[in-house]
Amino acid sequence: MAKITKYRRYFLAVAAISMLASCGTTLTFKAATLGLGAAGLGVFSRPDVNLKEKNYAAADFMAVKMKDQVSFDDFILAQPLEEADHAGVSSPLGANISEGVGMRLFDLGYQVLLQEVAAANGNASLYPKSPNDPDFILKGSYRYGKKHMDIFLRLVEAKSARVVSSFDYSLPLSKEVRDLSKTKARISRVPSSKAN
């Protein structure tokens, strides 16, 4: 029974790839093929796969959805992902995911501004600040589960806040993911109100 399911997955992938060959550009076909291949090989369900591989596969899925709305001349600003339950709070994991997805989009030909995620990872000198305002913003959030970390990626048009592309997936809560998701403690003061 397990062999039949395994072969069914490969059959569906081959059928989907052959349908994709007849529509779109070469880039669309390549990105869709990579994404289907990653899903077929279980990239998002295997706990032993490294984070870089998952970031690149997520970027490939997003690239297929955004190809008709984002040109290679547009600027995309990558921002660190935030904790879903604590707005404005991020961790090295949030910066790592955005940087990885942004690097893959750059590899595909998009202009990605990575200075914010590099600064969050302590690598601010790697990417100088761009004089260009972003046309799109790559952002999102992550949420802890019992055994998984849910990731919610969004590519948003900067002027209208319209979501252009999105991709949601889960990461197994491995030691690497747990370690990267630890946030630094911050002390903030709240002004007290004195009653007279």
Task: Tell me the structural class.
Answer: alpha/beta
- The CATH class of the domain at 51-180 is Alpha Beta
What is the residue-mean pLDDT, rounded to a whole number? 78
User: Could you give the order of the helices and strands?
Assistant: HHHEEEHEHEEEH
| Helical proportion, percent range | 25-40%
What is the CA-based Rg, rounded?
19 Å
Bin the strand percentage. 15-25%
Shape: globular
- Write the CATH architecture name of the domain at 51-180: 3-Layer(aba) Sandwich
Model regions low in confidence, pLDDT < 50 over at least 5 residues: none
Instruction: Work out the number of β strands.
Output: 7
Please name the CATH topology of the domain at 51-180. Rossmann fold
Number of helices: 6
Break the fold down into its secondary structure elements and pairings.
Layout lengths: L1 H19 L5 H15 L10 H16 L8 E4 L3 E2 L2 E5 L1 H16 L3 E3 L1 H6 L15 E9 L3 E10 L5 E10 L2 H6 L16
Helix pairs in contact: 1-2, 2-3, 3-4
